[in-house]
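re: ur question from yesterday

yeah so i grabbed the chain u mentioned. its 689 aa long if i counted rite. heres the sequnce exactly as i have it in my notes:
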Amino acid sequence: MKTADAAVLRLAPFIGFPNPAPPMSKEILDETSGSLTQAAKEARGLAIDAVHACSSGHLGLPLGCAEIGAVLFGETMRYNPSAPGWLNRDRFILSAGHGSMFLYSWLHLSGYDLSLQAVKDFRKLHSVTPGHPEYEETPGVEATTGPLGQGVGNAVGYALSGKRAAARFNTPGHTLFDHHVIALAGDGCMQEGVAREAIAFAGHSGLDNLILIYDSNDVTLDAMAEVTQSEDADSYFAAVGWDAVTVDGHDISAVGQALQSAKENDNGKPKVIIAKTLIGKGIPEVAGTAAGHGEGGAKFAEAAREGLGLPAETFYVSEETRKYFADRNSAMQDEYSAWEKTYEAWAAENPSLAAELQDGVSKSVPDDLLDQIPEFDPDHKDATRGSGGVVINAVSKAVPQLVSGSADLYGSTKNYIKDDSDFSATNPSGRNIWFGIREHAMGAICNGIAYDGLFRASGATFLVFADYLRPAIRLAGLAGLPVTYIFTHDSVGVGEDGPTHQPVETVSGLRVIPNLDVIRPADPEEVAGAWAAAMLRTDGPTALILTRQGVPNLSSVPIAERREGAALGGYVLRREQGALETIIMASGSEVEHALEAADRLGDSVRVVSMPCLERFDRQDDGYRESVLPQSCQKRVAIEAGVTNLWWKYVGTSGHVIGIDRFGLSAPGNVVMQELGITADKVVEAVENL
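ran it thru and got these C-alpha cells back, copy pasting raw so excuse formatting
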C-alpha cells in the first residue's frame, strides 16, 4: 500500500474541512477506541469465517475497512435497529457491494435483526445474506448494490431526498430531518462513469448532507490501481465542489474525527473522506495485493484468526462487544424516542404536511387520480410527449410528492412541472431537477430518491439514450422501485436526425427487463391512463414511451375505455361488427395505421391497442382471451421497431410489420413510408395471410 506520513493523515481532518468540529476529548477517545478496536477485529473474523465457509465472496474490503465500520456503527451514525425505517436515521450505502460481508457483519454486531446464523449462511440459497446487498432482503440494507458506482449515485439520490425533506417538512419549531447520507466506495466505484456523473451533480447541488468514504487502497481486481489510474483524488473532488480530506483508514481516532467534522460542517459542500487502507488487512499472505480483493485469502482463515488474536472458535463475538453495542442501542433508543415526540408535536401543528409525508412514506396516491387529469378535446392532435406534459402537470397537483427531472432536455421531453420551482443548492424544495447531460447518474439518483421512499421520482431523456441509464433501470426492476422514466422521440418518426437518434430496438430492449412496465400510448387519453398506472404502481418501475410526431385523438372510442385500456396493457379499440376474422395489433403512433387499415378491410376486423405488453400479460386468462381469442389466428401486428417480441401474439400463422434494421435520415413521415410503417402495408399483410 502507498502510505502518506502517518502524522499528516491523523491531522488531516483538521486541515481538510473548513470550520471543523473540535477534536473529541481524550476521555471519549480512550473510552471508545479499545471497544471499537476489539469490534473491528471481530468483524474481520466474521468476514473471514463466512467467506471461508462458502469458499466464495470478497474479503478485501471487509478486512481493509473494519476500523471504518467500527467508527460508523459504533460511534458516528444515528440509527435504531429496532426501527430500521426511522425517518431521521443516517443512511449508509455500501456502493462497493462486493464487500457485502462488511455490511452484514456490522448489521449483526450493531443489533439489527440479522442473526449469527444468517451470517453463517452467507451466500447460501434463500439466506438474508446474499452475495451482494439487496434492498428489502436484509434489515438495514438501504440499496441493492454490486454494479460498481451505482451506490454512489443512490447515495446522491438519498441526499437529494433528505435535503428536500428538510426544506419541505421542517418548521421553525420542529426539526424532523437533519440526518446524513454516508456511502462507502472503492477505486472500482470511482472509475465508473456513473459515480463521476453523480459526484459532479452532488457538488453543483450543494448536498452537504452527503459524506462519501473513499476506500483508497490502491488496488483493483486485476492489478495495483496505478496500472489504470493516476489522478489526484483530493484535487478532483475540490474541483467539482466537494470538501476533501485524507486519513489513515486504520486510525480509529482519525476516522472518527473526520466523520465528526464532516457531519457538523453544513457549509454547502458534500464531503469526501479519502481513507488510505490496506486491502485484506489481517491476512498477511494477500494483504495489500490484488489477490486480497476476493476470496483468495480465505484458505488462510485459521492462521489469520490466530494472527488477529481471535480464539479458535469460528464466528466469534465477545461479550464485551455485545455489551458495547447494547449500550449504544440504548442511547440511540433514547434519541429515537425524543424524535418521536418531536414528530407527534409537529404532526399535531401541521396536519396537512403530516398527511403529505405519510402519503409519501406509504406511496399513496388518490384513488381518483384519473378523474383529476382533464380530458382532451376530441380534435386534439399533438405528439404524445406534448400530451405527457399536460398530464404530468395535472398529476403533480394530485401527487405533491412527485418530482420530475430531465437530462438537459426539458424543452423536448415536456415534463417540467410548471407550478413549481427548480431544485438547487439554494432552493432544495424545488420539484424540477436539472440533471445535466448525465443520464446514467439520473437513473441512479432517481433510484436513491425511490429507496428513501419520501418522494416519487421521475426522469426524462430521449428514448435512444435509455441505454445510458439501463443498468439503473435494471436495478430499479430488481429492487421493485416505483420510478417513472419518460422517454420521448420514440421511433424513426424522429426523422432528420437519422439512425443515431432513431431507437428501433430500444423499446423491445426495455421490455425484456423483468419487472419493468413499458407503456407506449397511442393518444392523449392513453397517455393519461399510462401516467395513472405508473403512479398507482408501487412494486416496480414504469417507462413511458412517447412520440415526437403528432398523433390524433382517437375520439371515436370512449375516453374511459382508452384510459383504462392503457392500465390493462391491451384492449379492444375497434370491435368487429360481424364475424371476427382478423385481429390487427399495434402500439403508440402505429395504432392510427391499424385503424385506417381496419376501416378499409371491413367489418370482420378487430383492432387491439397494446400499449403495454407486460401489463397485458399480467391479466387473467379470461381477459386476455376476450381481447385475443384463440379462435382467431389471422393476426397482424405493426410497430415501428424490431419485430421479435410480437410473434408471441400473432403466432406462427400471423405477420409482424416492423423495422429490423437501423433507420434513415429524412423527414419522419418519409422514413415511415420508406420503411413500410403504413396502413397500406397492414392491408397488404392481412390480404396475404
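noticed a couple things. Residues 319-349 form the longest helix (31 residues). also The radius of gyration is 28 Å.
anyway ttyl
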